[in-house]
Amino acid sequence: METSDVIVVGGGLFGPATAYGLRQQGLDTVVLDDGDDVLRAARGNFGLVWVQSKGMGMHQYHAWSRESAHLYHDFTSELREFSGTDIAHRNDGGMHLLLGEAEREQRRREMDIMRQQAGADGFECEIIEREEAEKMMPGVRLGDDVVGASFSKHDGDVNPLQLLRAIHASFQHLGGRFRSDSRVENIRHDGSVFIAETKNGAFAAPKIVLACGHGITKLAPMVGLDTPIVPQRGQVLVTERAEPLLNMALGTVRQTDEGTVQIGNTEEDVEFDDGTTLSAGQAMARRAVQVFPQLAGLRLIRTWGCIRVLTPDKCAIYDESEEFPGAYVATSHSGVTLAAVNARHTAKWIATGETPPGFEEFSAKRFKTEGGHVSTHH
Ligand SMILES: Cc1cc2nc3c(=O)[nH]c(=O)nc-3n(C[C@H](O)[C@H](O)[C@H](O)COP(=O)(O)OP(=O)(O)OC[C@H]3O[C@@H](n4cnc5c(N)ncnc54)[C@H](O)[C@@H]3O)c2cc1C
Questions:
Q1: Which ligand 1 atom minimizes the distance to the CA of 38?
Q2: Ligand 1 atom having least distance to the Cα of 335
Q3: Out of 64, 108, 117, 233, which could bridge 268 as a Cys pair, Cβ 3.0 to 4.6 Å?
Q4: For residue range 2-56, what is the model confidence (pLDDT) as tens digits?
Q5: Do the domain assignments include residue 372?
Q6: Which residue among 334, 338, 341 has the greatest number of ligand 1 atoms within 8 angstroms of its CB, and so is best to mutate?
Q7: Is the same domain home to 224 and 247?
């Protein structure tokens, strides 16, 4: 039996980012990950560190995302130092371009609600006119139907696969142990430690963190936690490499540090089907060219579908089990955005019990219905 101070289940983004922070807190940490053939949002996402649209209905989640974006600067430097990997972090703001008056009105309404719910804490996002948006991207000609954009100075992006690699390497650089192809099948509690059983043997620790995306649904009840998660597919298109044109983070069309242009992102309720469809690809490509006519000549080279890990209200869940203290769950959409805050505050919570004000709002208790069950509808 391999022992440690803490077991982190899940080798995507939530698990390793938290595990990296736990090593910095001085805890002997083992990460257990499933095999290569399972769902992994960490390997198919869009790479945005995005704040402006996060937390409709729950300002605490907006503030949590904003805090992460602020922590990203130091986080990026550390990852570079420990892993030698540059994650291509851009943090000079992000825009969501708006096509037509109806989109502008809808965005304005959403922003009004979010500003109201933020109260004194503030909500820093503004609608800018089309001319101003064009000025921010020298050389770009926006399509005739673009009326403006919502802009937030907190937004940015990274190379998501380099991020994943850098977090894994930094965790191991700090002495963390990573066990791949080690799916946790069962968790037992023997009074003082949790025992996680895998086909490669058992692992024991006084603390266990479930941060394994859709794998949480099966494991959480074993430690007395109820964590509702639903799947949602996102399809992405990628073009061939092009000269640098789009110089900042953009909501649905972004040029990567490698020169390719990523075009996204559908939101489809298709259970766990991670395939792609021609109709979705056509719709995404059509919109991209409507916004940026200069992309029209580029060839598409890749497309994929990937399953999001969503809570019913699209905000994060962080919980410690009341029945089995020492067992934690951490999950959300936006694992790229939240990587820095997970490395800092989530790790500190697990290591020391210390939490920032309002952290208890992230408990899945917010989904409890009158009968005491957790609802997946919100
Ligand atoms: C199309 C798309 C676009 C996205 N765009 C963005 C974006 O721009 N910005 C952003 O911030 N976020 C984005 N996301 C979300 C982000 O990718 C996820 O929030 C993040 O990957 C979730 O991390 P996770 O570690 O919780 O889950 P995952 O990345 O899914 O990883 C879960 C891990 O747990 C392992 N596992 C599962 N069960 C077990 C078990 N029983 N035992 C051991 N290991 C197990 C799996 O092998 C896997 O490695 C996007 C997601 C999608 C699908």
A1: 47
A2: 19
A3: 233
A4: 999 999 999 999 999 999 999 999 999 999 999 888 889 999 999 999 999 999 9
A5: no
A6: 334
A7: no
